[in-house]
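Q: How would the C-alpha cells look for this protein?
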Amino acid sequence: MKQRFNLSKADPKAFEAMLGLEKYLAESGLDKKLFELIKTRASQINGCAYCINMHVRDALKDGETTQRLFLLDAWKETELYTAKERAVLELTETMTLIANQPVPDAVFDAAKAQLTDQELAAVMMTIVAINGWNRIAITSGTPLD
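A: Here is the predicted structure in C-alpha cell form.
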C-alpha cells in the first residue's frame, strides 16, 4: 500500500487528540489482553492490515497465545474465549458494524453483565478508538512497520 497522507505531520493537533483517547485507555485499567483482542478483532472486520499487524504483535508481547489470535475471526466457533471475552467480542463486532443494525439489547446486556461500569466505558471507548484508527490508517494508506 502506498502512503497517501500522514495525519501526524499534516495536523499534529488532530493526531494528538486521538492519542489523548489512547492515554485514557492506557490508564483505564482495562485488561491488556482484552484490549488487544478488541483492537485486533475490529481491525480484522475493517480490513486494516496496519492495525492487525500492530495489535497482534502487541497481544503476543502481552502473553496472548498464537492459537487464540489465529482463531479470533472464528471466536464464536471455539471455546478458547471466556464468557467475558465473548461478550466483549460480540459488542466489538456489533459496534464496528453498527451501520448494519443498532446494537441489540441482548448484546449490550451480555457485556454489561460481564463488566463493571468502568470496564464497559473503557471497552466502548476502545472500540470507538480502534475504529477511528482503522479509518485513518486505511484512508491514509499507512504502510506496515
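The CA atoms of residues 99 and 120 lie 21 Å apart.

The mean pLDDT is 97.

Upvote if useful.
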